[in-house]
Amino acid sequence: MPRSLIILTAIGLFLSSATLAFSQTQSPPAKPRSPGEIAKADRIAMAKRAACQREAREKKLSFMQRRSYVKACVKR
Questions:
Q1: Is residue 74 part of a domain?
Q2: pTM of the model
Q3: Residue 12 lies in a domain
């Protein structure tokens, strides 16, 4: 009896931990599918990049510093 109880407990712990692990996985963000959605997402990204480039120019950064700044700015 105790041996079967230990085995059942081990199986129960394994299944509960597997269930928790699968429930915590996140689905990736929805990608735009239609041409209109893709164009809208592209316009938003281009506007954000342009704003970051303007900020970098206003700060009078060198070329490499400007590239680095724009890359970090777009990620924010």
A1: yes
A2: 0.56
A3: no
pLDDT tens digits for 43-55? Answer: 999 999 999 999 9
| Domains: count for the chain | 1
67 within a domain of the structure (yes/no):
yes
Give residues with Cβ within 8 angstroms of 65, minimum separation 6. Answer: 56
Joined tokens for residue 1? 């009896």
CA–CA distance, 71 with 12 (Å, rounded to integer)? 48
What domain range includes position 40?
Answer: 35-76
SS3 61: coil
User: What length is written for the chain?
Assistant: 76
pLDDT single digits (tens) 16-48 = 776 656 666 666 667 778 888 899 999 999 999
Establish how many alpha carbons lie within 13 A of residue 20's alpha carbon, considering only the half-sphere containing its beta carbon. 6
Phi, psi (rounded to 5 degrees) for 65? -65, -40
Domain-located, residue 26: no
